[in-house]
Each structure stands twice: as C-alpha cells, then as structure tokens.
Design goal:
The longest helix has 17 residues. The chain has one domain: Leucine-rich Repeat Variant. The protein contains eight helices and no strands. It is globular, with a radius of gyration of 13 Å.
C-alpha cells in the first residue's frame, strides 16, 4: 500500500470492528520504516477515544515507532493530546523517554 491510496486505512480506523481498527494503525508500521509518519499520526488521532485496550496498545506502539523517526513530531502530538490520551497509549508512546521527559506528560493526564 505504500505507493497506493490509503483511504481504506481511514475507513478501517472508523470501523466498529476492533480488529479492523487495530489493522488500520498497525498497517502504518511499514510506512514508518520508510520514514513516512503522516498517516500514523492522523489515524492515531482518530483512535484517541477508542475504548479498547488493544487499540490503546497498538496506537501507543505506532506512535513510539513514529517518534523514533521524528522525536519532535511525537512531542508535538503529545503536547496536544497527552491530557486526553488513554494512559496505556500514552505510556507506550513514551516508552523510549527518560523519566524527566515522561513526567510532564504523565502530569497532564486527567484522572477520570
């Protein structure tokens, strides 16, 4: 899909089926390896309010991988969304951060 339209991923990200939503975000792994991280962030935004823990894990994992390509872009995403992100997704996304980098984002997290 790298050189093809990616509309199907956005359709899958909005699906009622957990496995289709998970497929949407995990499918961006190849793009990330190619240095193309735009779709990862766009799909992650779609999935931010997902109720399923497996989606939180996959989203955090792909955000972390995208952050390995461009740390500043990940920091910008977290600046904007950390307070509302599911804790699991946030922790996975920050797994490569040191404690001093993680603490401000964890402090932004609103407790339900």
């Amino acid at each position: 899909m790298f050189d093809k339209p990616r509309d199907i991923l956005y359709k899958l990200a909005r699906s009622k089926n957990i496995w289709e939503r998970r497929t949407a975000i995990v499918s961006t792994a190849y793009f990330i390896k190619q240095g193309d991280i735009d779709d990862t962030y766009k799909i992650a935004e779609i999935l931010l309010n997902d109720e399923e823990d497996l989606i939180h894990k996959a989203t955090g994992w792909m955000l972390r991988a995208a952050g390995d390509v461009d740390r500043q872009r990940l920091l910008g995403f977290l600046d904007k969304h950390a307070a509302l992100m599911p804790r699991t997704a946030l922790r996975y996304a920050m797994e490569h951060f040191d404690k001093e980098q993680r603490e401000p984002y964890l402090g932004m997290k609103k407790v339900k």
